[in-house]
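Reproducibility note. Readers wishing to regenerate the assembly model reported in the main text can use the exact inputs given here. Chain order matters: entities are listed in the order in which they were concatenated for prediction.
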Amino acid sequence: MTSLPTHAPTDGSSGFVDDAVGLPTAEAHRLAGDIVRNVESVIDGKHGAVRTALTVLLAEGHLLIEDVPGVGKTMLAKALARSIHATVSRIQFTPDLLPSDVTGISVYNQADRRFEFKPGAVFANIVIGDEINRASPKTQSALLECMEERQVTVDGSTYPLSSPFTVIATQNPIEMEGTYALPEAQRDRFMARISMGYPDETSELSMLTTRDTSNPLSTLEPVVSGASLQRMMISVRNVYVSASVKEYAVGIVRATRSHPDLRLGASPRATLQLVRAAKALSLVSGRDFVLPDDIDELALPVLGHRLMPTSRALGHHQRSDDLIADLIRGILETAVVPPSNTR
Amino acid sequence: MSVLSPPRPDVTSRSGTAAPVGGDHAERRSRAHRLWPMSWALILLYLVTVSTLSPLLAGASWWLGIAVLGTVVLASAAAARSLGVRTWVATIVGAVVWLGLLILFFAPDASFVLVLPTFDTPGVFVELGRDGLRSIARQGTPAEADMGIRFILAIGAGAFALLLDAVAVAGRMAAVVGFPAVAIALVPGFVNGHINLVALALCGAAFLLVLWTDTRVRRLSTSRPSGVLGIGALTVIGSLLFAAAAPGYNGESLIPSGGGSVFGRGVSPLVDLGKDLRRPGGAQQFSYTTSTDESLYFRLLTLDEFNGTTWSAGNDRVRELNEPGTLMDVPGLSDEILTEPTTTTVQVDGMVAPWLPVPFPSVRVVGAEGRWMWDMEGLTLSSRLSGAGGQSYIAESVLIQPTREQLIAAQPEVPPNVDRFLALPEDIPPILTETLAAITAETDNAYDTAFAIQQYLRGSPFLYSLEAPVDDGYDGDGFDVIATFLEKKSGYCVHFASAMAVLSRMAGIPARVSLGYLPGDRVVGAESRLTYTVGTDDLHSWPELYFSGVGWVPFEPTPGRGVVPDYARPQSSGADGRNVQDARTSERAQGDQAPVLPPSTTSSTGEGAVEPPAELLTSAALFFLLLLGSPGLLRASRRRSRTRALHSGRAGPVTAWREISDAAQDYGMPVSEADTPRAFSAALSSRSAFTTQEEKALASLLDAVERVRFADPDRATLRLVGPSLAANTETVTGALRRRAGFMDRVRATIAPASVLSPVYRGRVPEPA
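Running the prediction on these inputs yields the following structure tokens for the assembly.
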């Protein structure tokens, strides 16, 4: 386990104020733009991924980045974390990593003659879990429990995690030797899964000139304070979702449950997180209301990793991800936005 | 995991949303499958349109053949597409199937394995086509659908089916098929003035179904082969020209030439005779020159079987092979009866029937072409293959001239072979028995009885009328009809003849009904003064009674028609028995096309039908045009009311958006109910290449509609209202219209998809 240098106190308590009010939409939009631009100064041509990552952050969810090595998964996570003035920790998962390395441990203090809690890496605003599939299931589930409950219980004492708290985990889908891929049910705890994909030609060319000499991350400065981030999160909660958009989201999730090619559809938690993410995306786009198009944009990242195709449907496809992307596209193409605007 | 969700049974193998893989062929097949509903709709339109021709043709068997032909052609084209054949090639497949069916139906003898053409096939087709044209020229309506007419129908209907397939399926221009359909549906109106509004409405409904199906199918596949616009335009122009040039109503025939009539081959020739008589315009049937001064009745066939509902020619008779040239014996004729050998030269003109008109009793016919055969008992000539049309022949006959005394002296016993002419069904209506009893109370022999019956029917209460039976619903020749006739005492020759024949049979005199022509009109100024012409209004039927030793003797019970033979005239009467008609008709000039019928009947025979039904035609055409134009009118009125509402501020952005969406759909852009406003606007601007100003109008409309539909109503403020909203809407719809192709604009006007296949959008309440 290693820790990144942090910009804030490392004791786990954050500098966020509790009684903050939300930012005006325009202001939140401007800040979101700043963050996206900041991150994009180190990652070229990945606007969609950056946007989704920020959306998940603002929606107080956790993000799973799944892709082949070397496309910038960790870079995205680090850049996002650095753009915000918040505590950041990074866990490099290995097979011998213990749950206590993640959560923290009670150590006997000779001087005080009592046990003292040493917080683990999870006590930070943004936790980067690198190559989460390399850890043993035991350690994985320790992290996943923290993600869900936003607290750590060690030796009978419960320690709340800092707020905001976001885990950005990366996973390598091709290197399967000696790894423990996250079970599908566990993936449900991540709000969204994105994959980076390869950069296009121009982005790759410009990368050669800018990344050759220095690590761009080192020059990255925070553009948003923790307090502003928290106020943005409050703004997200205040984004309006019309009844028809809610029905639309529910309709899409329910369609996954009755789809003949899917063995496992999306859970009610998925519905909740889909709408919450859509609210965040609306704010990122500078709107204080959710459009069905926000739901459309997020359907694949939010629902994709929760669906399990039947083996028969899988037979035609090389990768189950392709199949699932097709299925979700099909559902979106036929889903109708309910017309009623009940108020 | 499987505990959470046991594997579901797979309902379908594929989601159906992924793009079809496997190249052109598979894609064409899947597209063709979606086109099947279109083919079914076209088949329906075809059947309905073809059915509108039924007033022009008698019977229904022609319809069945034509229906099968078109259905098979359309279905085979669709099936070929389903097998992966290109759309245009599939139409050609339909054409090949059509040709095969033509050969199978019409020229199986000149074919190879029934459907493949040989070198002889074109000759047969040309011959059939010529026959058909001749037949159309000669016949009135409803015409008998003989082989020639059927062939021409099959050509036309097959071409119509292929046109439907080529334009609507291959060309994707379903709106155009309305024009040929309208043109065909209006033909009966032009020809005989009767427009069946129900049929026309059905035709329109079938066309609307085609349009509706087309918009449904179009939404599934947006690709459209180019290069068919020209064909579509030609179709429109061609069909309009055809409709404009269709022959006007001339009161008698499809084509205003000599005209003519025909006997139906139906179950009851007598009923058909009634129709022929009522038909306006007495077209010339044949002319003849004879060697006798006597009036000659020409016979076509004899009806000797009566089953209670109709008279018919017995079919169970054993026919010996014979030739027209064979010298026949006159059945029952003995040497004591005076006969006058007569030679008659007949030239058939307009008549189309499988019988030759010959005087009774003819014993030999020379010069008839084709295969004709004698009916030995009736002494009529019929043919299965040949027609009387155009024939010229010489008939030798022996005109029997029995005296009254000879007839009175005839033995009441009849030979066994004549027994069947006495057969009657059991259920004789009481009025017949009563009438017979009253008439024959004082007669004591067969002749007196027959004479009494004839005189009774010729008596004063009875009126000759072609209309009364129809109006009162007793047009026919069955028991019930005869009973009603005796009660109403009004009818035409069929009623008189069949009544006398039935009454005679009841009285024990063998009787049959003959069908043929009256002597016709003497030609004024002809070289021989014994030249006559015979027209359709000379059609007649009369009874023949059998007397032992004399044979079959005709009687004339119809008042005002024909000539009463010497032996059947009242003794006291010094008149020659001729009816008033003869004197008048002899003055009639040949070629006179006016409906000429005896004065007693003229008033009721044709005048009503001759009235030019111009108003009816016009209103029917207007009705049809209205039906065709209704989608366009509906769309226009909707657009106007929306614009007005937008201007006045009564309607908001949702209405504006709906108008834009409808306009886009009308111009052939895919509009889906699953589209979000944003997705729709993106598709719109990417397809239409808007200018900056138009983009701006669209963007502001999009913003407005999104706010109205999805934003918090408490927080949202409407920036776009009233005239500016209307102006922006007009900018966008105008841009769509300018960028649409010509045919898209035509289709948007005639068959707006937004009306025919509205995208469901539910009701969005507009905030006040």
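We highlight two features of this model. The first helix of chain B runs from residue 23 to 51. Confidence is low (pLDDT under 50) at residues 1-22, 221-268, 573-612 of chain B.
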